[in-house]
Write a structure and sequence with these properties.
By secondary structure, this protein is an alpha/beta fold. It has two domains: 69 residues, Helix Hairpins, CATH 1.10.287; 74 residues, Chitinase A, domain 3, CATH 3.10.50. It has three helices and nine strands. A five-stranded mixed sheet has the order 7-6-5-9-8. Strands 1-4 form a two-stranded parallel ribbon. Helix 1 packs antiparallel against helix 2. The longest helix has 25 residues. The chain is elongated. The protein starts with 5 loop residues before the first strand and ends with a strand.
């Protein structure tokens, strides 16, 4: 992921920063504790392995979050002439097979399909980009077609 851009909302940026700050505190607390001894007689101590695994996972998550924050691009609402076009940050209302759904187009770091947040890089998100209310799109990757009913931007 070197030099990859991560599109984030202000809220998403804040949440990731808070998580990174929290993990730094956890790492300091773990570092301040005595680590278990590596070996017990001739066997590797399972407590040491669990401790080492925890530290390794913690460091990997911290590195990932730091990379996201260093390469973050904040999603900003478009100008008034572009507010009818789907772009990252848009809240989109679509219809598929008679069923209405609402999506917020986010960056990949904030995507949460269960919460209605889809990545602009996902098949549906990418297909929606640049389209307007009233247009129809086809998404062959998921074998679906959508009609865009509305495009809104939450102004911060």
């Amino acid at each position: 992921m070197p030099n990859a851009k991560f599109f984030l909302s202000r809220d998403g940026f804040s949440r990731i920063k808070e998580e990174l700050d929290h993990l730094r505190i956890v790492r300091l607390q773990k570092s301040a504790q005595d680590s278990p001894k590596m070996t017990v007689s001739t066997d590797v101590n399972p407590e040491y392995l669990a401790y080492y695994e925890d530290i390794t996972l913690l460091e990997a998550r911290m590195k990932n979050l730091d990379e996201i924050l260093r390469n973050a691009v904040l999603i900003k609402p478009p100008g008034s002439e572009e507010r009818d076009t789907v772009q990252p940050g848009a809240q989109v209302i679509v219809e598929n097979s008679g069923k209405e759904s609402r999506f917020t187009i986010t960056g990949s770091a904030e995507a949460d399909p269960a919460a209605g947040k889809i990545s602009a890089d996902s098949p549906v998100g990418a297909a929606l980009l640049g389209h307007r209310a009233g247009e129809r799109i086809s998404v062959p990757a998921v074998k679906a077609a959508y009609r865009i009913l509305g495009v809104n931007y939450r102004m911060a």
